[in-house]
Amino acid sequence: MSAQRDMKEKNPWHTPVTIIFSVIGVIAIVALVTVAVLQNRPLPQKYKYGIVLDAGSSHTALYIYEWPAEKDNNTGRVEQTLSCKVDGPGISSYASAPWKAGKSLTKCLEQARQKVPVKRHSETPLYLGATAGMRLLNLEDSSASTKVFQAVEEALQKFPFSFQGARILSGQEEGAFGWVTVNYLDDRLEQNLQTRGALDLGGASTQISFVSDNFDGSDSPDNAVAFRLYGNDYNLYTHSFLCYGKDQALRKTLAQQTKSGPGTILDPCFHPGYTETKNYSVLYDSPCVSDRKPQGAPATFNHTGKGNFSRCQEVVKRIFNFTECKYSQCSFNEVFQPRLQGPFGAFSAYYFVMNFLNLTDTSIPLEVVTERLSRYCATPWNQVKEQHPGVKLKYLAEYCFSGTYIVTLLTKGYNFTSENYPNIKFIKKIKGSDAGWTLGYMLNLTNMIPAEAPDSPPLPYAGYVSIVTVIALLLFVLFIFSLRPLWPRCSKHPQII
Ligand SMILES: Nc1nc2c(ncn2[C@@H]2O[C@H](COP(=O)(O)OP(=O)(O)OP(=O)(O)O)[C@@H](O)[C@H]2O)c(=O)[nH]1
């Protein structure tokens, strides 16, 4: 009994001072790590918002973007959080009743009002950009276009957002902002990776935009857009072909076949068995074709499908002018185009059509694409309808034409070949955001892409916490070792001094 007491007294590990020091040391280290972790923990995320309305020729769509409130100019952080398709046609179709254009937008704006937190409403910018439909209306009847804009602005100002105006985008802007969107979402800009060209097929216009080593803008300044983004310079080639969107191209193709105003057109671009009575006045009601309206034609014509891909391609080719080019090289209609370079993203109608036709895989050789299209076009209309009961008839009737148009535009128009066709990727969304000009437009107007690369913090949060933890543990181990002289000696039998 007395030996045991003696052992306790002589064993320094059991001295109250040592025990107190050890406990304080452990508490101090745990407290240090806890404070470091808590202090540097990311705060619950607060978001900012931006709203863009894409007033296209065929329809209007509203997009809401969000990004962390404290990190306005960090890349890859702006994301689409809602998209809303406006019911009805594009705003340019309301020329005869402009107020309806404004009214058509309210349902989607109500959705936006619900989505954006109330306290952010007044600071959320709201933009409306109109594309080729309004470009055409403006050419045709500028006062009607002004009235449509007035009605639209009136409707938008009734919402609690910070309305920044409604305007027509130039074709160049539409192409360039589409390119910015694709490359921003792909993180290619901040990381200075090879950029992806952008191919956008709308209803009334189509855009091609890409960076090419042999283009510095000197050949054709109208096609050049210079950007400095994250410290890198880009000389972008971009061109927008008005009237070469898929709906206007269809009108042009039909116009080719109705030059003499026949009562019936046997159209190779529609399925055999397809037959509809159409109005000449409706077909020619567009500046893209109005100058070709046949004189003395009957009021209507019978549009009858023949379903022949190669004959369809022949008719489609006739809407392009491939013969004249005053530059070293052209795409079509005397428009300069540098050598194609790098990967491409093809979106909007390129995606809708190729996805329907099961042709988004560009490793499928072009000859096979052609064979499949030939078979599809030759399929009787009744069979096509039976096979796709849920598809809107207007879209369904046009996929043979649209597929043929896309292949012709890419290969004959832009000069894609079997070698570089696989460089095209048909895309709808990238990381949850739709590919299109709207995101690039908002990033530009809100100055969210800096010209120079932003400074990044020396350590990410996880790295910081790990380092603090490791150093604390190391200190603790050193502290324990520093008490070594006081450690009890290890032996099987307690040593009694
Ligand atoms: N098959 C199919 N086609 C669609 C769909 N949505 C739009 N389209 C068609 O695809 C074409 C392009 O649509 P958008 O990209 O919205 O073009 P837009 O903005 O109206 O036209 P632009 O003003 O020329 O830019 C139009 O002919 C539309 O009718 C869809 O969900 N499926």
Automatic annotation (TrEMBL):
Transmembrane feature ranges: 12-38, 461-483
Cofactor(s) this protein cannot do without = Ca(2+); Mg(2+)
**Record-given protein name:** Ectonucleoside triphosphate diphosphohydrolase 1
Functional description taken from the UniProt entry: Catalyzes the hydrolysis of both di- and triphosphate nucleotides (NDPs and NTPs) and hydrolyze NTPs to nucleotide monophosphates (NMPs) in two distinct successive phosphate-releasing steps, with NDPs as intermediates and participates in the regulation of extracellular levels of nucleotides. By hydrolyzing proinflammatory ATP and platelet-activating ADP to AMP, it blocks platelet aggregation and supports blood flow.
A molecular function (GO) term: UDP phosphatase activity
Q: Name one GO biological process term.
A: nucleoside diphosphate catabolic process
What's the subunit arrangement here? Homodimer; disulfide-linked.
Q: How does it sit in the membrane?
A: Multi-pass membrane protein
EC number(s): the record gives: 3.6.1.5
Q: Which Gene3D superfamilies match?
A: 3.30.420.40, Exopolyphosphatase. Domain 2
Localization per record: Membrane, Caveola; Membrane
Identify its protein family: Belongs to the GDA1/CD39 NTPase family.
Q: Report the active site residues.
A: 174 (proton acceptor)
Q: What class of enzyme is it?
A: hydrolase
What InterPro entries does the annotation carry? Answer: GDA1_CD39_NTPase
Question: Its catalytic activity?
Answer: UTP + 2 H2O = UMP + 2 phosphate + 2 H(+); ADP + H2O = AMP + phosphate + H(+); CTP + H2O = CDP + phosphate + H(+); ITP + H2O = IDP + phosphate + H(+)
Any single Gene Ontology cellular-component annotation: caveola
Q: Which residues form a coiled coil?
A: none
Pfam families attached to this UniProt entry: GDA1_CD39
Alphabetic keyword roster: ATP-binding, Calcium, Disulfide bond, Glycoprotein, Hydrolase, Magnesium, Membrane, Nucleotide-binding, Transmembrane, Transmembrane helix
Q: What residues does ATP bind to?
A: 203-207
